[in-house]
Amino acid sequence: MRAAVQQEIGQDKLEVVDGIEAVGFGPGKVRLRIRATGLCHSDVSAMNGVLPQPAPFVPGHEGAGEVIDVGDGVTGLSQGDRVLVCWLPSCGSCPSCRRGQGHLCLTGFLNAGTPNFKRAGGSPEDVFGFAGTGTFAEEVVVGAGCAVPIPDDVPYDIAALIGCGVTTGLGAALNTARVEAGSSVAVIGCGGVGISTIQGARAAGAAQIVAVDPVVPRREAALRFGATEAVAPEELADAKARITGDEGFDYVFEVVGKSATARTAYETTRRGGTLCVVGAGAMDDHLQVNMFELFFDEKRILPSMYGGGDVLRSYERAIALWRAGRIDLQGLITHRVRLADINDALDQMRTGEALRTCIEI
Fold first, then answer.
1. How far is the C-alpha of 130 from the C-alpha of 46, rounded, in Å?
2. How far is the CA of 81 from the CAs of 25, 137, 151, in angstroms?
3. 71-79: which pairs have CB atoms within 8 A and are 24 or more residues apart?
């Protein structure tokens, strides 16, 4: 089969090759035919080494497709079922899962160290799948918990986005920060996840939503998706003064994954307000907050991992809001490419041209 492979960490281009085989099928596993996958910034972060990932590997974790085979012991899934890929399934039995924090389950991360693919022809080289999945491939074998059935009225491309970016952004606003109606919000970083955060804040009833991004098309898009104002980073201080009387916003979301923007977000949050960190950053990039301001300002700093809540319920909520016309998911897909043109999608993301590119496989 065909897949896009990153041979070494640090390469900025993927190799689209034939002769890759999905491995590991057996009890408790399912084999999926991927139909659509989104390009998430986390894929790029794995490619450049910001997020740890063994190589060679097949990127992609935001996918949807159909079940083509079911291993022994799998219940609730059958051949032909339409599913989205959950890259962080909960095991249901670890301490995090028992506390109701399945999004913090480490089982999915441990799966990332098990090869998902190999090269045909008897090559001994292991090929991994990003985040234990690897959806930039025609087929993938995953644990049954990674395959979540979707209703027939949800297209594959929309289901793929719900599998990561939409759930992450909506959940940051609705689960983690719990944005209150009538509040003021700023969102720093307006790619696909940032736009989903804006839509979550709007659904929660925020009165002012300021989108912050250096890329003009992204700022224009943010206004279409519910932002009341969109500014460049150098204009944020003025927006804070005009909208909040320089007190700061009730909620500020950092959706970049950099300590510099997180520090800006902290300074833009009012005393007693909430800074929600959504962006996935590097292990050696440290946010500095002094002990006096931490105590005196009483700002809540809330990281949000995968939307900060039960992912299955979050999927259902996203579908319900989409059906009701409360959020726009189709509009998030600004570009479409075939797998052979995956490097075009990478260029579209790096330049900020695309909110989400759908790779049709």
1. 8
2. 17, 18, 10
3. 71/25, 71/26, 71/27, 71/28, 71/29, 71/30, 71/144, 72/26, 72/27, 72/28, 73/27, 73/28, 74/27, 74/28, 74/29, 74/30, 74/144, 76/144, 76/149, 77/30, 77/144, 77/147, 77/149
pLDDT band at 110 (very low <50, low <70, confident <90, very high): confident
276-332 pLDDT tens trace: 999 999 999 999 999 999 999 999 999 999 999 899 999 999 999 999 999 999 999
Show Cβ contacts of residue 271 under 8 Å, excluding neighbours closer than 6 positions: 247, 248, 296, 297, 298, 299
Please state, for a pLDDT cut of 90, what percent of the chain lies above it. 92
Global confidence as pTM: 0.95
Provide the token pair at 37: 């996958």
127 contact partners, CB below 8 Å, separation of at least 6:
5, 20, 56, 57, 58, 115, 116, 117, 118, 119
Backbone φ and ψ for 338, nearest 5 degrees, come out as: -85, 165
115-120 long-range contacts, Cβ below 8 Å, gap at least 24?
115/23, 115/24, 116/22, 116/23, 116/24, 116/58, 116/140, 116/141, 116/142, 117/3, 117/20, 117/21, 117/22, 117/23, 117/58, 118/20, 118/21, 118/23, 119/19, 119/20, 119/21, 120/19, 120/20, 120/21
DSSP percent split of the chain into helix, strand, coil, nearest 5: 35, 25, 40
Task: Write the pLDDT tens digit of every residue in 191-250.
Answer: 999 999 999 999 999 999 999 999 999 999 999 999 999 999 999 999 999 999 999 999
